[in-house]
Amino acid sequence: MSTVGILGGGQLARMLALAGAPLGLQFLVVDNEPSACASQVAPLLRADYRDFVALEEFAKRIDVATFDFENVPAETAQWLTEHTRVFPNPRALAVAQDRLEEKTLFHSLGLETPAFAAVDSRIDIETAVAKVGFPAVLKTRRLGYDGKGQYRLRSAADLDPAWAALGGVPLILEAWIAFEREVSVIAVRAQDGEFRTYPLTQNWHADGILSMSLAPAPQVENLSASAFAHARAVAEKLDYVGVFALELFVVDGKLLGNEMAPRVHNSGHWTIEGTACSQFENHVRAVLGLPLGDTTAIGSSVMFNWIGSLPDARPVLAESRAHWHDYGKTSRAGRKVGHATLCAADNIEMSRRLARVARALDREAQAAPVLEALQR
Amino acid sequence: MSTVGILGGGQLARMLALAGAPLGLQFLVVDNEPSACASQVAPLLRADYRDFVALEEFAKRIDVATFDFENVPAETAQWLTEHTRVFPNPRALAVAQDRLEEKTLFHSLGLETPAFAAVDSRIDIETAVAKVGFPAVLKTRRLGYDGKGQYRLRSAADLDPAWAALGGVPLILEAWIAFEREVSVIAVRAQDGEFRTYPLTQNWHADGILSMSLAPAPQVENLSASAFAHARAVAEKLDYVGVFALELFVVDGKLLGNEMAPRVHNSGHWTIEGTACSQFENHVRAVLGLPLGDTTAIGSSVMFNWIGSLPDARPVLAESRAHWHDYGKTSRAGRKVGHATLCAADNIEMSRRLARVARALDREAQAAPVLEALQR
């Protein structure tokens, strides 16, 4: 019986462990937080990611290590490769951790991105703005997620406050893009190089955090092949093993690379019920060298993200083909505490179901753009 | 956050805990066996079912108690009702534990059964045989499962050896029935009386243990309504809450009651992937008073039971819409150690998938009757 070690004990680790249990796998989660929600379904090794004594115990107890948290220190990922098998590899992790390296990689592989420039000092911002223009977004190169570590620049007057807010760590200035849509590729690559993608997912954000996903994304006939080819090129370049997400903007009907997440991803949660083999099961299969599973969508799926606190579960539980996911966390503003997925045979049935659930939960504004996309 | 207590820590408890985790539930399993396989996914309270000191701790830590093991002592179930909420209720459990009470109940509700008679002494066998005839099966009234505690009677010569093997506990003699088919109803009843059934499942046994299930059972148009009505009558009579199975024989196109299992059931494992809300999730919903979930079948499902040891998982993992379930147990003759479920859009796709998997696993004999039923 194999044991999979996971660095990070959040909802992603929790859903990995739940997906792996039917395969007869055991899990061991490392997290510094005793209440890490994955510890409700898998044993927890409470330790800091730089506690190499604890990590030695971790490495001894597992067969392979993987990540729920993408910002594990580079030296930890490297150290682990010397003590156990690690997927994805530390280089892939390092590239995905750094917005500048990530975008540079995209460019080298022919995937265009919004204009960007490195910013390492106050004076660099002027040069970067000259290249990128306004509006733009100044971002930390590392450790940013869900809209954190970002400052929007509308004019020269924003430069000083932006530097005051973020200066002192490596930054990147990116052109602010008025995109038509945001889509993501959830892909999985096996140790033998086999590569599979789930159907393209369309995503909507609120306050920088994913709010809703719809899969398969509608009207992407002209985009899917290109999106999948880009994801494959990235995965092969990094010799990536496991599941990852590639977030893309659609601008004037063309794809621009936004970022990649070197792990299972919030925009792929719909795969739990919307496909025969979820992103979580496929990630576990990939890191263990098992055959990859079916990534075909079974009908249409819509995911609601629950941020801060959970709404009443009953209207979702009472609906047909509706699935509730409570991560077992306490409520806190901005925190991802759960999600719900609605499944349906087709977009017409989905529209009805979604409208009914949104009304019952008083979430009509949240669901409105998805309903609009379904009816187009 | 609610905690569900489960008496018994086998694969049923394991699958209940895995189904309940996404609902944000916690579980606590009582089992005397430290290696009980449910303990890999939920906390274990190691105790005997008659250890009332341990049960007091158990009752304090949970919100509701239910069962993975139907043969929990009656006094334990009764004691629990005085210390916590318990579903199903002890009377339902007691009736289902005793083959004589069970069959007597079926009769009282208009569900015919094979002829039967109580046997409490050696002399009773003669009277029972006079009533039931040969061939017949002498069975213990309590604690029998998977063909254990049974002795087949072909002629008067078998009476002494049968009594020698089983005598000393309350017995029942049942007519041995050459049934055409065996089907089961998996049903769920809520605390408010709402009642739902999954489509009828057809089952095949080998050596008294379930070997294969096919759902929805083919050609049951004339049987389903009657089977569901019998299940409902039994549930209402017992004020049953939760999931249960009613096993039925089809003889000359008519239904005969065989037995009921007051718990989630092996012949309902296909519901994990074959429906939007599995028997495990629906049982948890029922005992917690949550709305019941959708019991409609999504396409066709076939379950292989793995007895004794697991075959190679890879041919199943490599197939589309095929699902592997390893219970995390060690191998042992006659032990249920896992199952696999194949799903398909229709019977034609299922026939191809099933034939391919059976061939790859060298299980063509096991799968043959299911293939035949699919092609009829």
From TrEMBL, chains A, B:
GO cellular-component term (any): cytosol
Catalysis performed (reactions): 5-amino-1-(5-phospho-beta-D-ribosyl)imidazole + hydrogencarbonate + ATP = 5-carboxyamino-1-(5-phospho-D-ribosyl)imidazole + ADP + phosphate + 2 H(+)
EC annotation from Swiss-Prot or TrEMBL: 6.3.4.18
Coiled-coil annotated residue ranges, if any: none
UniProt keyword terms in alphabetical order: ATP-binding, Ligase, Nucleotide-binding, Purine biosynthesis
GO annotation, biological process: 'de novo' IMP biosynthetic process
Short name of any one Pfam family annotated for the protein: RS_preATP-grasp-like
Functional description taken from the UniProt entry: Catalyzes the ATP-dependent conversion of 5-aminoimidazole ribonucleotide (AIR) and HCO(3)- to N5-carboxyaminoimidazole ribonucleotide (N5-CAIR). Catalyzes the ATP-dependent conversion of 5-aminoimidazole ribonucleotide (AIR) and HCO(3)(-) to N5-carboxyaminoimidazole ribonucleotide (N5-CAIR).
Subunit relationships: Homodimer.
Protein name: N5-carboxyaminoimidazole ribonucleotide synthase
